[in-house]
Specification:
The chain is built from 14 helices and 13 strands. By secondary structure, the protein is α/β, with parallel strands linked by helices. Strands 1, 2, 3, 4, 5, 6, 7 and 13 form an eight-stranded mixed beta sheet that branches. Strands 8-9-11-12-10 form a five-stranded antiparallel beta sheet. Helix 5 crosses helix 6, helix 8 runs parallel beside helix 9 and helix 12 crosses helix 14. It binds S-adenosylmethionine (SAM).
Length: 440
C-alpha cells in the first residue's frame, strides 16, 4: 500500500473510532464521514472491531453485513426519465432535491435574462425546465442520449459538447454550475471551459469529491485551485457534504456483490460544493485529457452496451473472434473506481458494470448493432470483415450472438433499462450554435 493510501486508511479508522459510539446505524456512520465510501468504511470498521478498538456493542450495531438484504429501491428517489447512467461516463446524478437546490442557487445569484451555463449537470437543467424563472439555460454535455431527452423539455438547451475537444459556444454566462467526473484531469478541463464560457464576475458552483472519497483528495484540490487561479477563477466558499447523489444502478450492484446493499442508503454519496468567482481574464491553452479509450454504444433489447474501438483493443488475427471473454468472477466489476486495473482489459462494458474481454470488440459492436436493428448477424459481420466469414468465424459469431442474448437478459434483470437509444458517444467534434434556452 502506498503512503497516501496508508494515511487515508488511518484517517478513516480514526474518524470511525471517534464517531462509532454516537452512531445508531452504518448509514449514520457513513453520513458522519467526509465522503468515505461504504467499502472503505466497512473495511475500517472490521479492522477496529477485530482489535477491540471500538465498543463491542457499537461494532455489532454498525456491522453492515449483519442486515438481511432488502430491496431498498423505493428509497432511491430515482430519476428514470433520463437514460440509465453508464459507469464509463462516471455519471453520478444529484438527487432531485440537490438538483433543485443548485438550480435555486444559480437563480439567486443571477438576474432575469442572464445566461446560466451547466457543465455536465443535466439534472439541474431538468429542474430548471420544471420551473420557469426568466433565465437562459445552456447545458454543455457529452452524452447525446441525455441531451436528446432534455431537449424535449427544454428545447435546444442541451448542447452536445465534449468539453475536452469540441468548440465551445460563446455564452458569457453569469453563472456556471459544473460537476466534472471526479478526477483531476477532467476537472481541469471543466475549469478551463468554465473560464471560456463565463463573463467576468460570474459565480461558479463546482461539485467536488468530499475529502475522504479516496486517498489524496485534499492534495488534488490544492493543485486544482491553483490551476483555477491560472484560469482567473478564485475560490470564495467551500461547503462540505452539501451535494447529495443518487446511487446509480451500477454502484448498487457493486454494493450488493460486496454484501453492503442492505445497510447503505441509496443516497449515501455526498459531494462538496466549491463556489468560485471569475475575477480575471486569463488566456490559457485547453488542458489535455489523456488519450482516453474510445467506445461505441449500442442499445440492444434496452440494455446499454459499450464496445471498445480504439486500436489497442483490436486484434487483427484470424479467424476473427467476437466472443465475450470473462474477466471477473460473476462478470460484475466489484469496484466503480477508475483506478481498478480491470478497466484496462475490458473491451465490453455494460450499464450495470458487467465487463468482458473480447478479441474483436469492433466486430461484436457491428453484430450487436445489426441485432438491435432486427438484421441477421452474419452479413453484417461479413461487411465488417470485408469478406465472407470462414466456418470457424461463423461458429464464433453464432456463439457471440448467444452470449449477447444472455447478457442483455441479465442486464434487464439487474438494472433499469435504457430509456433512449444512443448510437455512439465516441466523441466526434460537433459545432455549436450559441444558443441558450430561456425558462420564462
Ligand atoms: C459526475 S457526472 C455529473 C452529473 C450531475 N451530478 C447531475 O446530476 O446532473 C458528470 C457529467 O459530465 C458529463 N461529462 C463527462 N465528461 C464530459 C466532457 N468531456 N464533456 C462534457 N460532458 C462530460 C457526463 O456525461 C456526466 O453527465
Amino acid at each position: 500500500m502506498d503512503m497516501a493510501a496508508e494515511v487515508h486508511r488511518s484517517v478513516i479508522e480514526l474518524l470511525i473510532a471517534q464517531a462509532a459510539g454516537h452512531c445508531a446505524t452504518f448509514a449514520d456512520l457513513l453520513a458522519s464521514l467526509p465522503g468515505v465510501g461504504p467499502d472503505d468504511a466497512a473495511v475500517a470498521l472490521d479492522y477496529l472491531a477485530a482489535r477491540q478498538l471500538i465498543d463491542p456493542a457499537a461494532a455489532e450495531r454498525l456491522n453492515p453485513r449483519a442486515l438481511a438484504h432488502q430491496d431498498n429501491d423505493v428509497l432511491a428517489g430515482e430519476d428514470d426519465s433520463l437514460p440509465c447512467p453508464h459507469p464509463l461516463d462516471y455519471d453520478w446524478r444529484f438527487t432531485p432535491d440537490a438538483a433543485e437546490r443548485l438550480r435555486a442557487q444559480c437563480v439567486q445569484v443571477s438576474d432575469s435574462g442572464d445566461i446560466i451555463a451547466l457543465l455536465g449537470t443535466p439534472t439541474v437543467l431538468k429542474a430548471a425546465a420544471a420551473r420557469p424563472d426568466g433565465r437562459r439555460w445552456a447545458l454543455l454535455e457529452a452524452n447525446p442520449a441525455v441531451n436528446a431527452v432534455l431537449n424535449k423539455a427544454a428545447p435546444r438547451a442541451a448542447l452536445r459538447c465534449d468539453l475536452a475537444r469540441d468548440n465551445l459556444p460563446h455564452l458569457q454566462a453569469r453563472v456556471v454550475a459544473a460537476d466534472p467526473p471526479w478526477y483531476p484531469a477532467h476537472t481541469r478541463v471543466f475549469l478551463w471551459a468554465t473560464a471560456q464560457v463565463s463573463m467576468l464576475g460570474a459565480t461558479v458552483l463546482l461539485a467536488q469529491p468530499g475529502a475522504g472519497t479516496r486517498p489524496g483528495i485534499l492534495a488534488e484540490r490544492s493543485e486544482l485551485l491553483a490551476y483555477a487561479a491560472t484560469c482567473g477563477l478564485q475560490p470564495v466558499r467551500i461547503s462540505p457534504g452539501t451535494l447529495e447523489y443518487n446511487c446509480p444502478p451500477f454502484e448498487r450492484l457493486v454494493l450488493e456483490r460486496n454484501g453492503l446493499a442492505a445497510a447503505v442508503p441509496l443516497t449515501w454519496r455526498r459531494g462538496d460544493l466549491i463556489e468560485l468567482r471569475h475575477t480575471t481574464v486569463r488566456q490559457r491553452e485547453r488542458p489535455e485529457l489523456d488519450s482516453e479509450q474510445s467506445w461505441r454504444e449500442v442499445v440492444l433489447n434496452r440494455a446499454r452496451l459499450r464496445f471498445r474501438l480504439d486500436p489497442q483493443a483490436a486484434d487483427k488475427t484470424r479467424p476473427a473472434d467476437p466472443r465475450l471473454i470473462p474477466l471477473v468472477d460473476g462478470d460484475i466489476l466489484t469496484s466503480v473506481s477508475r483506478r481498478d486495473l480491470t478497466r484496462c482489459r475490458a473491451a465490453v462494458w455494460t450499464a450495470s458494470n458487467r465487463v468482458f474481454g473480447c478479441r474483436a470488440p469492433g466486430l461484436l459492436a457491428v453484430i450487436a448493432s445489426a441485432l438491435a436493428d432486427g438484421e441477421p448477424a452474419l452479413p453484417a459481420a461479413g461487411t465488417w470483415l470485408g469478406r465472407p466469414p470462414n466456418p470457424a468465424e461463423i461458429s464464433r459469431i453464432e456463439h457471440a450472438v448467444d452470449q449477447l442474448a444472455r447478457l442483455t437478459r441479465a442486464e434487464l434483470a439487474s438494472g433499469p433499462a435504457a430509456s433512449e437509444p444512443a448510437d455512439s458517444i465516441s466523441g466526434q467534434p460537433t459545432p455549436h450554435p450559441a444558443i441558450a434556452w430561456s425558462a420564462s
